[in-house]
Design goal:
Elements (H helix, E strand, L loop, with lengths): L1 H8 L9 H5 L1 H4 L5 E4 L27 H6 L2 H10 L14 E4 L1 H7 L5 H7 L6 E4 L3 E3 L4 E11 L2 E12 L2 E12 L1
Parallel strand pairs: 1-2, 1-3
Antiparallel strand pairs: 3-5, 4-5, 5-6, 6-7
Length: 180
């Protein structure tokens, strides 16, 4: 799982540009590290009306024609069921990946006050939450959901298809499920 999570976490993510960033053009194109939450993305196996979930991923979101073309319904259902309970996510910190406590980030954003988040984690590209990967078609492929948020109107929810390679896992396809 660690290599799969690393392949997803170690990519460039959108950033929220502050007023200072607009005044400093060199800061606008600079890659910023993302805060990887230490708990996986919880998903809803049923509809939102039936459960309270801290994620945008549910059956309705995975029922689009684009999702049908992306990966089998069985793989999507397996992803939902595998992520009804959260697990610990642990990756070594690197230049572009830093670990953050899910509880701490939730507390900082309780009033959807992103300035609190950026005071605690300055110079970052927001946070990333990743699901538990599931195998696809019993082969060397895995399906993962990840959502990155960098402000109230800055974030994406993505499905990733990864294939095992000689030196780890490589993202071979991605599907944007939502964007703000």
């Amino acid at each position: 799982m660690i290599r799969i999570w690393t392949a997803i976490a170690d990519q460039r993510y959108p950033v929220y540009l502050s007023a200072q960033d607009f005044e400093n053009p060199s800061a606008q194109g600079r890659r910023k590290p993302v805060m990887l939450l230490d708990r996986s993305t919880p998903t809803c196996a049923g509809g939102r009306a039936q459960q309270v979930c801290d994620s945008n991923l549910d059956q309705k979101l995975l029922s689009s024609a684009a999702a049908d073309a992306f990966v089998s319904k069985q793989a999507r259902q397996t992803l939902l069921l595998a992520n009804t309970a959260q697990v610990d996510v642990r990756l070594p910190d690197s230049i572009y990946i830093r670990t953050a406590s899910t509880a701490q980030v939730d507390a900082l954003l309780v009033d959807i006050n992103w300035s609190n988040f950026y005071k605690a984690f300055p110079g970052t590209a927001g946070y990333l939450r990743i699901s538990v990967p599931v195998p696809v078609d019993s082969g060397p492929r895995s399906l993962v959901y990840a959502e990155q948020r960098c402000h109230g109107r800055c974030g994406t929810g993505m499905l990733y298809l990864l294939t095992r390679a000689e030196n780890g896992w490589k993202i071979t396809n991605r599907l944007e499920l939502w964007v703000t």
